[in-house]
Design a protein that fits this description.
63% of the residues lie in helices and 0% in strands. It has 63 residues and is mainly alpha-helical. The longest helix is centred in the middle third of the chain and has 40 residues.
Length: 63
C-alpha cells in the first residue's frame, strides 16, 4: 500500500506541475496579446484592471 501511495503521489505531483506550466503559458500569452492589442488600439479598447498597473504606478510617468 505504501508503494502504491508513493507512486500515486509522484504521479499527481507530475500532473500538477504540468498543469501549472500550462496555466503559466496561458497567462503569459494573454498578457502578451493584451499588450499588443493595447499598443495598437490604445484607449479604443477597454482596460483590463488585472493587467494594468495600479493608479500612480505608471511607468510612463517616470520618463
Amino acid at each position: 500500500m505504501k508503494l502504491d501511495l508513493d507512486s500515486e503521489k509522484r504521479s499527481m505531483q507530475r500532473i500538477w506541475k504540468q498543469r501549472e506550466k500550462q496555466i503559466e503559458k496561458v497567462v503569459t500569452n494573454t498578457i502578451d496579446m493584451y499588450g499588443s492589442i493595447k499598443g495598437i488600439a490604445g484607449n479604443a479598447i477597454q482596460s483590463v484592471k488585472a493587467l494594468e498597473l495600479p493608479e500612480g504606478d505608471d511607468l510612463n510617468e517616470e520618463i
